[in-house]
Structure prediction request, 135 residues.
Amino acid sequence: MEDALKKPGSIYLGLTALVVLLHFWLNPFYPEAWEVGAIWDVLAVFMAVGAVAALTHGWVHKKRLAADAPTMTQLWVHAAFYAAVVLSVLFFWNWFDNLAQGAEGQSQTHINFWIVINTLYIVLSGTLCYHLWRE
Prediction:
């Protein structure tokens, strides 16, 4: 069953990473045409699924890692898992704050965390997309 999810999961992660990247780069150019915050609110739902997928994939790979695996493989698997943990903690903390604040909006501190979260999401999802596709 897990093998059947690799290609669709790879496509999902790759597309969400690409859309987040493009919106992240280009949103300063269209604030009058579209409600940028509303677009981020929709993207956050897709990012939540991607963050959980990255965390789950990292956990499974970490548990399946052989004790005699090459050192570089062990480093990459652990780094990917802990990057997914950091992404998940920061994303859900900030997203829940955003949902709780409603129309009042988030504080500038929370808004600044989105820069880190979006960047980490793009890198982690893009990398995971590549690895899932190759498996």
User: Anything to note?
Assistant: The mean pLDDT is 91. Residues 71-101 form the longest helix (31 residues). The two ends are 14 Å apart (CA to CA). DSSP finds four helices and no strands in the chain.
